[in-house]
Amino acid sequence: MESISVTELNNIIKSVLDLSLAKNIAVFGEVSGVSTKAGHAYFTLKDKDSSLQCNCFSYSRTYLPKDGESIIAYGAVDYWTKGGRLNFNVKTIEPAGKGLLFLEFERLKARLSAEGLFEAAHKIPIPKYCKNMLVITSKEGAVIRDIVTTVRRKNPLIDIVVKDVRVQGAQAVKDIVSALTAADKLGYDVIVVARGGGSLEDLAPFYDEGIVRAVYAMSTPVVSAVGHETDFSLCDFAADARAATPTAAAELVAYDYYELRRKIIDSMRRIKTLTDYALNSRVSAFKLAGRQLGSRLTERLQRSQSRIKMLKLRAETALNKNADLKGKAARLNVTATRMTETLKKNVSEKEHALSKLNTALDNLNPARILSSGYFRLTDGLGVDIKGVKGLKPGDGIVAVGHDGRAEATVNKVKKGVENPR
Questions:
Q1: How far apart are CA 153 and CA 172, in angstroms?
Q2: Residue 399 pLDDT
Q3: What DSSP designation does 123 have?
Q4: What pLDDT is stored for residue 135 in this prediction?
Q5: Where in the chain are the domains?
Q6: Which of 10, 316, 330, 380 gives a 20 to 30 Å CA spacing to 302?
Q7: How far apart are CA 226 and CA 167, in angstroms?
Q8: Contacts (Cβ under 8 Å, ≥6 apart) of 282
């Protein structure tokens, strides 16, 4: 069999397609992965089982679709021989309503919103001065590099920890939910959930109910930075803050260390200047007050010295005029001596009388009487018993002597006076 080149085969395929009826046809499908360049649009048109790469040159003449939107694309099949790739060249686009995936997300959004998962009252403020942050994203790609570069441009101190997870595909939801749950117990100041842009299908994990509920349940503040600026995932609505891009999330979380340091230094300089000025003012005022106080003390001392001299002169004059004061003082001393002796005699007499009274009182002291062999009788309530009247057999009595007390019971009562001996 004779062989042909790749170019020849591709040319045959293109010729067959050019001769076929694959021109001027209308294709219905859901748009995914829209991108634009130099006025041209590129996207994938798909249905449940298949997909088709589409080009729309000079899309401004028709309609630019959005991810998830269902359209009717009018055009022709084209085979690019150089790349060996089949494309559908679209001439005209008509919107045919939103795609099923987009509508499913909208229904989920409405249900979760009705439950209150997006309410502002549940959102936690992002700390103004973060010490550490956790970034949940894929280590592959530009997302983490953009975040680290942006943070480090503003702040060299914030500790950045990266949790590598899948951000696309069937396992992405499980990875992200697990990372969020584990990180919430580790004491981070803020957690950033980040992913670059992509089609609606690529961002589908961030529309998942599991991630939305995990973000809502977090006690650590969460910043969502998913997709491009025009993308709004359900994770964005549940998070405490939404950043249009991963770079914007880094700007939001990282405080400007250099600006804060400059402000602190400026404030310290102003405080030092004000303190120096206040100190110098106080020192000057203190010196002035000291001089004024010294002047007043000197003046007062001089007045006091003058007054003392005057009083001394008056005293000397008074002594000269009253020379007989010494004689009067001697007579006063004699009188005082006599009065003292009289007072001592009176006190001695009073003490002797008081001693006699103490002796008499001591003879009447009940304790002295009791010590001679007598007892004081009381009933059970402590009332003195003056006689046998009122007593009856069985009554309890208390006998108190000088060396203690005894309790007894009356056996017999006999009235009348008897010789106690």
A1: 30
A2: 82
A3: P
A4: 94
A5: 6-98, 103-255, 369-409
A6: 316
A7: 10
A8: none
Query: For residue 81, what pLDDT is reported?
Result: 87
pLDDT at 302: 85
DSSP 207: G
Amino acid, res. 43: F
Q: How far apart are CA 385 and CA 387, in angstroms?
A: 6
Contact 51, 44 (CB under 8 A): yes
**CA 5/CA 60 separation, integer angstroms:** 39
Contact 231, 103 (CB under 8 A): no
Q: How many Cβ atoms from other residues are within 10 Å of residue 206's Cβ?
A: 25
DSSP state of 384: B
Structure tokens at 223: 């910043």
**What are the tokens at 52?**
């088709």
The Cα–Cα gap between 68 and 97 comes to 9
Q: What is the pLDDT of residue 98?
A: 54
> Rounded to 5 degrees, what are φ and ψ at 139?
-70, -15
The amino acid present at 154, given as its one-letter code, is K
Q: pTM value?
A: 0.49
pLDDT at 57: 92
Secondary-structure class of domain 6-98 per CATH = mainly beta
CA–CA separation, 187 and 132 (whole Å):
9
Contact 34, 64 (CB under 8 A): yes
Q: What Cα–Cα distance (Å) separates residue 403 from each residue in 158, 375, 383, 385?
A: 89, 10, 20, 20
Tokens for 353, please give them.
Answer: 């009388």
CB atoms closer than 10 angstroms to residue 3: 6
User: What gap in Å lies between CA 205 and CA 420, rounded to an integer?
Assistant: 119
Quick one: tokens of 165?
A: 């997870």
Could you report the average pLDDT of every consecutive run of 10 residues in the chain (421 residues)? 80 75 79 92 90 92 87 88 89 73 78 90 92 91 89 92 89 92 93 84 84 93 84 86 90 91 92 88 83 84 84 76 65 74 75 76 66 74 77 83 82 71 49
As a whole number of angstroms, the distance between CA 13 and CA 84 comes to 9
Pair 407, 398: CB distance under 8 Å: yes
